[in-house]
Design a protein that fits this description.
alpha/beta, Rossmann fold, four-stranded antiparallel sheet, binds adenosine-5'-triphosphate, binds magnesium ion, L-phenylalanine transmembrane transporter activity, ABC_AA/LPS_Transport
Length: 261
């Protein structure tokens, strides 16, 4: 099977800092891949390069065999890659349904001129989008919040709304930056189930996550980076027992309660 997403020798410098250095890995269609590493390792920077926010200073990125290196963010989205951010970015005053509907429009199928005329095809498309938004809300157990303002909801629910919004755009792949951050144990267990459900619906998943329970339970493959370089890659059991990974996590002197457990 050929890879859906391929990074070949990707790197970026910020001034003198090599934030990501000659990083290569692949994500196959239908896989759940986790990118992990200590704080500041370069994980979000990798996501920013894939989604066109940052331009790599070396290497190449391919999606479905097409070179998407340094493609603009809206074109990466149009190609079928949607993402969430490490900190929540919803329209706070809009309802849950409106937030998800906004996501539907990130990959429009209609031509620009169709929007100027009220063509039957356009009305049909609007009806389809509304139906899809409701279907996604049902799938993520958000339907009872459909008309609540996003900002009024508990944090864990807002996180689910973000996930719903990425799905609304009918992506081929979603990229999640710390989806379990700030969730309680029940919510993170539910998140793992949600991620499996998303994958089973045909969407490939790449995630950055510090919650090792989530990572170890969902990931088919784990890529570990430290100081921008790949130090290990393999299944959960390989990673759990990898001496370099243990060293990278335990050898730090900050006091975050993370670890490869
Ligand atoms: N725009 C930027 N300009 C300068 N340095 C940056 C920029 N973005 C990221 N960096 C630096 O690149 C390194 C990697 O940062 P990044 O945010 O990718 O880490 P991370 O692995 O996502 O960490 P965390 O787990 O804390 O989210 C850090 O040293 C960071 O300060
Ligand atoms: Mg980050």
């Amino acid at each position: 099977m050929s890879a859906l997403l391929e990074l070949h020798g990707v790197g970026i410098r910020f001034g003198g800092l090599r934030a990501v250095d000659r990083l290569s890995f692949t994500v196959d269609k239908g896989q759940i891949v986790a990118l992990i590493g200590p704080n500041g390792a370069g994980k979000t920077t990798v996501f920013n390069m894939i989604t066109g926010v940052y331009r790599p200073t070396e290497g190449s990125i391919r999606f479905e065999g097409q070179d998407i290196t340094a493609r603009r963010p809206h074109l990466v989205a149009a190609a079928g890659i949607m993402r969430t951010f490490q900190t929540i970015r919803l329209f706070p005053e809009m309802s849950v349904l409106e937030n998800v509907r906004a996501g539907c429009h990130l990959r429009v199928r209609q031509q620009w001129w169709q929007g100027l005329l009220s063509l039957p095809s356009q009305r049909r498309e609007e009806a389809e989008l509304a139906e899809r938004a409701h279907e996604i809300l049902r799938r993520l157990d958000l339907d009872r919040f459909a008309h609540d303002r996003a900002v009024s909801l508990p944090y864990g629910v807002q996180r689910r709304v973000e996930l719903a919004r990425t799905l609304a755009a009918d992506p081929k792949m979603i990229i999640l930056d710390e989806p379990a951050a700030g969730l309680n144990d029940n919510e993170s267990a539910a998140l793992s189930e949600t991620i499996f459900g998303i994958r089973d619906s045909g969407i490939t998943v790449l995630l950055v996550e510090h919650d090792m329970n989530v990572v170890m339970s969902v990931a088919d493959k784990i890529v570990v980076i430290n100081f921008g370089q790949k130090i290990a890659e393999g299944g959960p059991d390989d990673i759990r027992n990898d001496a370099q990974v243990i060293e990278a996590y335990l050898g730090r002197d900050d006091d975050e309660e993370e670890g490869v457990s």
